[in-house]
């Protein structure tokens, strides 16, 4: 599995993640595929789908920070600026201690798929949102 941030063809990445999601059935396994599906949809400017997948991943117990950053970007692009700001703050408040340092990552292997929680990707998403949301 490639990191979506390194994947220039987000449609192909979305298709790949969709195939992975059909393979994993347990809720604790689906949270990862839903997160990556949310990110691929975000990059494809399918903001409603990105928000839906991020919310589902959160419901299944995935890292709130990652999904809330995706959700904040989706909400911003959907024109919900205040909601984006609130969700962004929730993402910052829930930031995992072990993913605060540039270069830090946590791998998780499930049924032949390797998922990465990457501090760099979180920090990049954070920077992207901060550029879009002027201070309140």
Describe this structure in words.
- The protein is mainly α and 136 residues long.
- The chain has six helices and two strands, in the order αααααββα.
- A hairpin with a 2-residue loop joins strand 1 and strand 2.
- Helix 4 (64-77) packs parallel to helix 6.
- The termini are far apart.
- Residues 1-7 have low confidence and may be disordered.
Which secondary structure elements does this structure contain, and how are they paired or packed?
Elements: H1 10-23, H2 27-43, H3 47-59, H4 64-77, H5 81-93, E1 105-110, E2 113-118, H6 119-132
Antiparallel strand pairs: 1-2
Major sheet: order of its strands?
A: 1-2
Main sheet characteristics: 2 strands, antiparallel
β-strand amount: 5-15%
Note the total helix count. 6
Order of helices and strands: HHHHHEEH
Cα shape: globular
Structural class: mainly alpha
Helix content: 55-70%
**pLDDT averaged over residues:** 83
CA radius of gyration is 14 Å
Strands, total number? 2
């Amino acid at each position: 599995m490639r990191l979506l941030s390194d994947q220039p063809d987000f449609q192909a990445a979305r298709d790949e993640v969709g195939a992975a999601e059909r393979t994993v059935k347990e809720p604790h396994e689906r949270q990862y595929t839903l997160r990556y599906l949310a990110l691929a949809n975000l990059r494809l400017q399918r903001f409603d789908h990105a928000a839906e997948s991020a919310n589902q991943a959160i419901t299944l117990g995935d890292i709130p920070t990652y999904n809330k950053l995706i959700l904040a970007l989706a909400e911003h692009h959907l024109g919900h600026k205040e909601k984006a700001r609130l969700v962004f703050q929730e993402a910052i408040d829930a930031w995992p201690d072990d993913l605060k340092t540039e270069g830090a990552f946590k791998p998780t292997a499930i049924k032949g798929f390797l998922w990465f929680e990457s501090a760099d990707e979180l920090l990049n998403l954070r920077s992207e949102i901060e550029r879009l949301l002027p201070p309140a």
